[in-house]
Amino acid sequence: MKSYLFSLLFVLFTFLAFSQEAVFSSSESLRSSLASGTIVMILPDNVTADNVRKYSKYYTPYFTTSFDRETHEVTFNMVQNDAKSRRVIIRFLSANGVQFVKIGEGSIPLSNFYDSYLK
User: Fold this and answer.
1) How many C-beta neighbours within 10 Å does residue 37 have?
2) Quick one: 66 exposed, middle or buried, by C-beta within 10 A (0-12, 13-18, 19+)?
3) Cβ atoms of 114 and 86 closer than 8 Å
4) Taking the model in full, what pTM does it have?
5) What backbone phi and psi angles, to 5 degrees, belong to 87?
6) Taking a C-beta distance cutoff of 8 angstroms, is the pair 94, 110 a contact?
7) DSSP annotation string for the chain
8) Distance from C-alpha of 31 to C-alpha of 39, rounded to nearest angstrom
9) CA nearest 77: which of 27, 116, 111, 33?
10) Residue 38 and residue 33: Cα distance in Å, rounded?
């Protein structure tokens, strides 16, 4: 029984240690960027400009991206600012290994980010 518990805790801590999160400074800045159609977030340090370029080329019907290498800030310029197009941002983040989105002080799983903010 102890070995099962240990294994479960080990997997949980390993998952959390390697989880990556994108960052918004506050929910207000997120909401205003969603309204404008220009969404800005900070990606994890392990995401490179090559990653952003490689994955965003598949989503040009929905958005274009620009990436600042120094601050790791990505800017999504939505082609059509609707919920369907914003859903594709989740695919982009997932392809880059992002599992959580930090908004202000709170962090939510990527799966809940769409329902809570992008709809």
Assistant:
1) 16
2) middle
3) yes
4) 0.82
5) -60, -30
6) yes
7) -HHHHHHHHHHHHHHHHH-EEEEES-HHHHHHHHHHTEEEEEPPTT--HHHHHHHHGGGTTTEEEEEETTTTEEEEEESS-SHHHHHHHHHHHHHTTEEEEEETTEEEEHHHHIIIII-
8) 9
9) 33
10) 5
- Identify residue 57 by its one-letter amino acid code: K
Residue 45 makes CB contacts below 8 A (sequence gap 6+) with: 72
The per-residue pLDDT for range 55-91, each reduced to its tens digit, is: 999 999 999 999 999 999 999 999 999 999 999 999 9
When pLDDT is averaged across residues 20-25 and rounded to a whole number, the result is 92
Distance CA 20, CA 96 (A): 9
Structure tokens at 72: 């790791």
Query: What span, in angstroms and rounded, lies between the C-alpha atoms of 53 and 48?
Result: 9
